[in-house]
Amino acid sequence: MKELNKQQIIWQVIASIPKGKVCSYGQVASLAGLANHARYVGSTLKKLPSGTQLPWHRVVNAKGELSFPPNSPAYQEQKKRLETEGICFIKEKIALATYAWKP
DNA sequence: ACGTTGACCTTCG
DNA sequence: TCGAAGGCCAACG
How far is the CA of A85 from the C1' of B7 (A)? Predict the structure, then answer.
């Protein structure tokens, strides 16, 4: 098939994340072929369509926390979704064992 | 076509 | 151990 766009690749990588697991932007970027382009991953996800079914909530920063401010509705919503997925939250942060280093 | 921004990561102090 | 600064690429205005 033709070369997928950067966004498409990122979508595939995020979609490859197993349920109950999360992945950091750097890891997603690496799997997407963008080794040091974690920023681009976030920017791309932000521009995602509202109807996207991508588990973008499984993508977190290297600090093991969500990239949104704690007072942001998206933060609470994402956290709630992760809990539903079975993610273990520790002090507003995600357990290291919850990271899916493998697609 | 250029400049600025960005849901970040890594390293130095 | 914690805090701050720099740097990578791509897309938007």
Answer: 20
Whether A41 is in a domain gets the answer yes
Residues of the domain holding A52: 6-98
Distance CA A9, CA A91 (A): 32
The answer to whether some atom of strand C lies closer than 7 Å to the beta carbon of A72 is no
Domain membership of residue A76 (yes or no) is yes
Q: Note whether residue A39 is domain-resident.
A: yes
Nucleotides of B under 7 A from a protein CB: 5-10
Q: Look at chain A and report how many structural domains it folds into.
A: 1
Closest nucleotide to A35, Cα to C1': C8
Mean pLDDT calculated for residue range A43-47: 90
Instruction: Locate A83 and state its tokens.
Output: 């809990």
Count Cβ atoms below 10 Å from residue A53 Cβ, excluding itself: 8
pLDDT greater than 60 at residue A87: yes
Asked whether residue A1 is domain-assigned, the answer is no
A96-CA/B11-C1' distance, Å: 22
